């Protein structure tokens, strides 16, 4: 399906993007990565840089000129995976205008590129597009609820992803072959663990640096953490002929756990590592992020079309992540 296909991955040097790039190259695709390296890293692509099927362009997804450059490399594009976005919860409030501009303008420009090339388009949306919706599991048709922006700007990300979906559905109505993927809390060894990173990596990094772990609120908020390979497998299947234009896929595990449970699972894995001589950090309770959803569980019923479900359990994934971190 992908052999010889001309594929653009925006944000391809990021955590999710680099794993997708690797799988696409393995399947024989001619891959172009467009990334401004704001959060992405060249080291994420290091093992593929000498591969003749990879072309890297440092550029801005919001600029038509950079997208035209991507289109010209192989005289057109067959598939666009649009992953570029400013992610990381702290950024949503601190850099709200940048988040909005990058997410919305980048989506509009890549949709235009797909229309110019008559390319299949796969949008990386997010469960954050549902905002603070209390209806679970998260499914198409659920309310998308956003609180007063005077209180906080957390929903700069989620609301922009909602508008990304609006723009994509509009393009579908105009004839574009496009599909939407919402990955649920992807995690894996290359996940950023600094203060602007995601919780699984933050917990592991805190252990390595013997720094206190902070549970937001009482730690009862739940998530459906999904192993990186499962997530990128979902993206590739969403781009296949098994799916149809307009399909929306929630790519997420059905193993719902609280953040407090996650912390205990990680401590258990580290404690059982006989070659780890560091201690376990202190756990403290702290104030949570504004607008943080209490639950996040995906409805995956539509995924029967593409034969997708999460294969790696959270305990297996956390063990693999710890083993990878410890070996590097």
The beta-strand count equals 13
Bin the strand percentage: 15-25%
Helix content: 25-40%
Question: What is the annotated CATH architecture of one domain?
Answer: 3-Layer(aba) Sandwich
What CATH first level of one domain would be assigned? Alpha Beta
Global shape: globular
Q: Helix and strand succession?
A: EHEEHEHHEHEEHEEEHEEHEH
CATH superfamily of one domain: NAD(P)-binding Rossmann-like Domain
Query: What is the typical, i.e. mean, pLDDT?
Result: 95
Q: What would you call the structural class?
A: alpha/beta
Rg value? 19 Å
Distance N to C terminus: 34 Å
CATH fold-type name of one domain: Rossmann fold
Which regions contain 5 or more consecutive residues with pLDDT less than 50?
none
In the sheet with the most strands, the strands line up as 3-2-1-4-5-6-11
How would a textbook summarize the main sheet?
7 strands, parallel
């Amino acid at each position: 399906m992908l052999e010889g296909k001309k594929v653009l991955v925006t944000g391809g040097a990021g955590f999710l993007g680099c794993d997708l790039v690797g799988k696409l190259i393995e399947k024989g695709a001619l891959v172009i990565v467009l990334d401004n390296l704001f959060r992405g890293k060249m080291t994420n692509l290091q093992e593929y840089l000498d591969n003749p099927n990879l072309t890297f362009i440092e550029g801005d997804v919001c600029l038509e000129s950079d997208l035209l450059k991507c289109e010209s490399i192989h005289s057109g594009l067959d598939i666009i995976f649009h992953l570029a976005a400013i992610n990381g919860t702290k950024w949503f409030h601190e850099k709200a205008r940048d988040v909005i501009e990058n997410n919305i303008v980048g989506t509009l420009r890549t949709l235009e590129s797909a229309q110019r090339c008559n390319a299949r388009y796969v949008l990386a949306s997010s469960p954050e597009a549902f905002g603070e919706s209390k209806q679970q599991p998260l499914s198409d048709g659920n309310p998308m609820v956003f609180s007063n922006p005077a209180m906080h700007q957390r929903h700069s990300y989620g609301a922009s992803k909602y508008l990304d979906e609006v723009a994509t559905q509009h393009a579908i109505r105009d004839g574009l072959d496009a599909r939407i993927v919402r990955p649920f809390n992807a995690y894996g060894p290359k996940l950023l663990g600094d203060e602007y990173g995601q919780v699984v990596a933050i917990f592991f990094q805190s252990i390595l640096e013997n720094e206190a772990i902070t549970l937001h609120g009482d730690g009862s908020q739940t998530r459906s953490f999904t192993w990186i390979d499962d997530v990128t497998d979902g993206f590739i299947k969403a781009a296949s002929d098994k799916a149809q234009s307009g399909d929306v896929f929630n790519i997420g595990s059905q193993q719902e756990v609280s953040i407090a449970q996650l912390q205990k699972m990680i401590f258990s894995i580290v404690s059982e590592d006989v070659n780890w001589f560091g201690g376990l950090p202190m756990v403290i309770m702290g104030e949570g992020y504004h607008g943080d959803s209490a639950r996040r569980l995906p409805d995956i019923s539509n995924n029967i079309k593409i034969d997708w479900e999460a294969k790696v359990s959270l305990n297996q994934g956390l063990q693999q992540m710890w083993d990878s971190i410890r070996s590097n």
